[in-house]
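FYI - complex with S-adenosylmethionine, inputs then prediction.
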Amino acid sequence: MLDIKTAIAQGADILATAGITEPRLTAQVLLAHALGRDRTYLYIHPEEPLSTVAWIHFGRYLHERTQGKPLQHILKSVEFYGRSYTITPGVLIPRPETEHVVERALALAPAKTPNALRIADICTGSGILAITLALEIPGAAVEASDISPAALAVAQTNSAALGAKIGFAVCDLMDALPGPYGLIVANPPYIPTLEIDNLDREVRDYDPRLALDGGPDGLEFYRRLIPQAWKALAPGGWFVTEIGYDQGATVPALFSTGWCDINVTNDLAGHPRVVEARRR
Ligand SMILES: C[S@@+](CC[C@H](N)C(=O)[O-])C[C@H]1O[C@@H](n2cnc3c(N)ncnc32)[C@H](O)[C@@H]1O
């Protein structure tokens, strides 16, 4: 019977042959998942024989990964800002870059307000931004919307699992969220429609199109959302949004004179990734 270290070596070979990046690490993560253990267990028990059931699960996961299924969909979970979130095919896989939205929002969130800070997360998907802010800013009142009922169901599952109290609405952008808010965050779809077919197959085939398609030039959601956010913000309130790597000039240009303190933050790869602006 195969032991853990041999299974990892064989799994890594299969993944490498299929052109999967980081084959050894991926094999370890998949094997740990098949065993219902964390990765440390594999290092401590390299000689342990694999049960038939674990071997069958591991084989299936390897096959799915070689066919292009993202690791996160095989594991059905993703880490974001130090917490674990359930995901399904109905939501975008949360990206590490989106943590920069959290960082900026936490830096800008008014430290003291007479009432609880009201926060809205538009296009919430799996709920990562709303839930992180609710848990990182105790006492904040957080509302979140998405047009996809399937996505909101995932966000509700995550908020219940992580103990975050959030008001959810299925609606188009801010239609059901009139405010007033002290902080609005968003990660709307921003890929130009014609570029979607050229994306990596893991994005193109597994992230919902509804989560990607930003219209002909990728800016459709910002054009609609920025004026809505202005109306729903209290004077002095902040809007913080993720943008595409090449939208560092086009998105800031959409803010009218009713806004001030417009600033772009780069991600770790040096690409413009977050735009913030304050309602005058
Ligand atoms: C890029 S994903 C972001 C998901 C999540 N906030 C994150 O950062 O991982 C965009 C989300 O916008 C939602 N969406 C698309 N069109 C929308 C609309 N008109 N109104 C509200 N949400 C919309 C999609 O369902 C998707 O969940």
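The longest strand covers residues 233-242. The mean pLDDT is 96.
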